Amino acid sequence: QVQLVESGGGLVQAGGSLRLSCAASGRTFLRYDMGWYRQAPGKEREFVATIRWRGVNTDYADSVQGRFTISRDTAKNTVYLQMNSLKPEDTAIYYCNVHPYGLGDYWGHGTQVTVSS
Predict the structure, then answer these.
(1) How would you classify residue 88: left for phi > 0, otherwise alpha for psi between -120 and 50, otherwise beta?
(2) Is 113 helix (H, G, I), strand (E, B) or coil?
(3) What is the pLDDT of residues 36-83, one digit of tens each?
(4) Chain-wide mean pLDDT for the chain?
(5) How many Cα atoms sit within 13 Å of 116 on the Cβ side?
(6) How is residue 103 annotated by DSSP?
(7) Percent of the chain with pLDDT over 70
(8) Long-range Cβ contacts of 20-24 (<8 Å, 24+ apart)
(9) DSSP code per residue over 19-43
(10) What does each C-alpha distance from 85 to 70, 80, 117 come to in angstroms?
(11) Alpha-carbon distance values, 92 to 38, 71, 96, 116 (Å)
(12) 62 phi, psi to nearest 5 deg
């Protein structure tokens, strides 16, 4: 099993910043992508950002491109999401995702991010 523990969520005013962290423990994998998804009230879970197993290639949702930065510390099995210029529409529960190549996804329990206007 894989345990994912997210931290760093909270309440922030529009224009502010937050940094999310997700530490993975338990079963290890040779190659795995790490990423973030979010789910706002009344909406489906949506992709936010992902970083490949080498920690070089990244992808972002159009809605966060240029404002959010994903990074990872492979030695610590930890992924980060630096969120700048936050908007009220960024309010959601943010979920950490681990995607081992050829296997199913693992999810964290989520951390709440609330951006006030």
Answers:
(1) alpha
(2) strand
(3) 999 999 999 999 999 998 888 999 999 999 999 999 998 899 999 999
(4) 95
(5) 4
(6) S
(7) 100
(8) 20/80, 20/81, 20/83, 20/94, 20/96, 20/111, 20/113, 21/78, 21/79, 21/80, 22/78, 22/79, 22/80, 22/96, 22/108, 23/76, 23/77, 23/78, 24/77, 24/78, 24/79, 24/96, 24/98, 24/106
(9) EEEEEEEES--SSEEEEEEEE-TTS
(10) 15, 16, 12
(11) 6, 20, 13, 12
(12) -55, -35
Q: Which amino acid is at 51?
A: I
- Cα end-to-end distance, the chain, whole Å: 40
One-letter identity of residue 111: T
Give the DSSP letter of residue 8: -
**pLDDT tens across 64-77, in order?**
999 999 999 988 99
Task: Measure the CA angle with vertex 4, ends 27 and 16; round to 5°.
Answer: 150
Contacting residues for 111 by C-beta, under 8 A, at least 6 apart: 6, 7, 8, 9, 20, 93, 94
- State residue 27's pLDDT score: 82
Summarize the chain as % helix, strand, coil (round to 5): 5, 55, 40
